[in-house]
Amino acid sequence: MAESCPANKDTINSPVQSLLDQSENKQECTSPSPTETVCLDSLSIDPPNELPGPSSIGQIQHECSENNLPNGNPGPSHSPTNLKSEPSQNTKNTFLGELGLGENDEYEEEAEKEETWEDCIEEQYNGESNDDLEVAVEATEGYSVDGVSESLEPNENLNSNQSKIISSEINWRKRKLDMQNGFPSKRLSRTTNKTVTTSATSLPTLQVMPRTSRYNVFGSGVPSNATSDLIKRAPIPSKDNPPPEMIDWLKQFQKWTNAERILAINELIARCEPTQVRHMMQVIEPQFQRDFISLLPRELALSVLSFLEPRDLLRAAQTCRSWRFLAEDNLLWKEKCKEAGIDIVQLRRSSPRSPSNQGSPWKAAFMRQHVIEMNWRKKPLRPPKMLKGHDDHVITCLQFCGNRIVSGSDDNTLKVWSATTGKCLRTLVGHTGGVWSSQMSGHIIISGSTDRTLKVWDVETGDCIHTLYGHTSTVRCMHLHENKVVSGSRDATLRVWNIHSGECLHVLVGHMAAVRCVQYDGKLVVSGAYDYMVKVWNPEREECLHTLQGHTNRVYSLQFDGVHVVSGSLDTSIRVWEVQTGACRHTLMGHQSLTSGMELKNNILVSGNADSTVKVWDIVTGQCLQTLSGMFKHQSAVTCLQFNNSFVITSSDDGTVKLWDVKTGEFIRNLVALDSGGSGGVVWRIRANDTKLVCAVGSRNGTEETKLLVLDFDIDSNSNAYTNAR
Fold first, then answer.
1. Which end of the chain is more exposed for a tag (fewer CB within 10 A), N or C?
2. Which intervals hold domain F-box (predicted)?
3. How does the average pLDDT of the chain come out, rounded?
């Protein structure tokens, strides 16, 4: 074959060289040899399932070399003019992927330009004589692609055809260099016909195939099964069949010191591709997954679990038996209950089913409280119980303790209700004026009236134990602590009473106008009045310790925790005072009207205002933490409020009771929405415990019947949620 078909002088066939080879082949090569045909057939691959990889191509070329096959054009039967079938785009992309080059639009575009240029040269100079072609080749022989900056001096001995051929050859080589600079390929050497690989990756050295041979690589219609036995693929490396070099490398790795091994690993990772690094992670990560909780001493394991949230602690209990045993620890759940503000004693009293007979009473208490909280937040509301009484009069005061509800009205009576059945147990009759204030502790209730007296009642029997005389005007406010009650009146005085004996112990005089609000912690009395003043008293000595001045209008509400005094006024401000020094620490501004109600717990203050908004404050820093407003805010004045660690419950003149998240300030849902809301329906008072909400509703124009609504959020005795929690 070598004698009949001369080899190319350049591995990459230029247009000139290709034309010259074709001209010679027309004269000397009438058909390819059988050996050449077999070699070319072995490169015919059925796309896309059996594309050869780089190693396979190198092996095939090696076989061609062993059969003394040239790298030049195989003959006229495979010339560009006779080859009509073009390789598909998917087949080309797959072949490039096997070479590690990947899909590259620019590469394909340049290849198309190259083929078009060769076709143009062939068409333009097809009629030229072989002599002109030979002269042009001799003139450009040794001219390197890298030497495009060089110029060929015009030669007077060359005719016009030869000059045109040389110019076309130079332009073609310049185009070829532009393509090679952008993609891994072969470059021509200046002094030799061998090829030099310039690639960023270490690919097997491939000789560039002639144009017709390259088409056969992508598929020329020859069935691959006819020559599949000729393709010898390299075996896929595996654990049982590793490359010999790897065995030597591993032996050497074992001989290295720890520092040398770490260095080798770092260098190895630096040379890995992302897919290989990802494989390393999948192999290494399981090596660090250990059940350290079960391996630790019990005390340390419990200490670790104590940092988990209750929800995560319950999930951890489902992992395995040892984790469940630790997650059921009673002291662990006791701490969780303390963090959540849950009192197990209170829960035992409020629930007929005591959790103490279960594995962990504190866990059962926590789970029960969680289910109750979900009832408040999400579960469908049960139909409320309706407690009708007091006719069309206004309910002026409301108390809720244990299983008893006591309502006072301007109809001169108080009514005692069962929170469970909704029945009116008894009506307390005795006052000759409307009842405007009340306090309750256990089975004792104290009421204050416009008839200027206080009465002490036994809730269970309905008997009036004592009638307390002394005030000369309406008893407008009172506060009960243990066996003593302090009352404030429109006569501008305060009186301290013993509810067991009915005796007036002390009279506190100093205000210049009606006393509107009072607080008592057993040691100090704090009062607010219409004279714009707040006073701190020592009741035992009947002495005014501090007069807190600063408000510019009537004081309507007070809160006192033993350290701080918080006062709300018609001047729209809220002031925080130090009880020991009488100094004003903060002035809380933000409301636009009268602050009608407040509650203070653990330095968190919630205030309701006639401007229809509710605000949450930190009295230590004086910052407003949340404003409960937005598109779901009340549409009228806030009449009453209560809050705990989770919720804020507010009522309004718009006839609604709303539930808010105390931590985020987000509106949760409406608990009550009267049909007459907005047209006269009003929620006057609310009282709530962990499982029940009592609302006193009515109207001032007869659009809503006066009644009490009792909403129950307790766990249903048939609830699967409570059974599962226990």
1. C
2. 290-336
3. 76
**Host H or E run for residue 488:** strand 484-489
Residue with token string 């059925």: 46
Torsion-angle region of 492 (φ positive above 0: left; ψ -120 to 50: alpha; else: beta):
left
pLDDT of residue 21: 54
CB-CB contact of 12 with 205 (8 Å): no
Dihedral of CA atoms 314, 351, 645, 586 in degrees, nearest 10, equals -160
Mean pLDDT across the stretch 665-686?
93
673, 682 in Cβ contact below 8 A?
no
φ, ψ of residue 77 to 5 degrees: the values are -65, -20
Q: How far is the C-alpha of 408 from the C-alpha of 391, rounded, in Å?
A: 12
Give me the residue label for tokens 């340390």.
300
Alpha-carbon torsion angle 241, 247, 249, 252, nearest 10: 160
Distance CA 65, CA 587 (A): 97
Q: What pLDDT, on a 0 to 100 scale, did the predictor assign at position 130? A: 52
In single-letter form, the type of residue at position 488 comes to: G
DSSP annotation of 237 reads P
The pair of three-digit structure tokens given for residue 133, joined into one six-digit string: 């072609």
Kindly report the three-state secondary structure assignment for every residue of 246-303: HHHHHHHHHHCCHHHHHHHHHHHHHCCCHHHHHHHHHHHHHHHCCCHHHHCCHHHHHH
Tokens of 196: 């030099």
Peptide bond into 235 cis (omega under 30): no
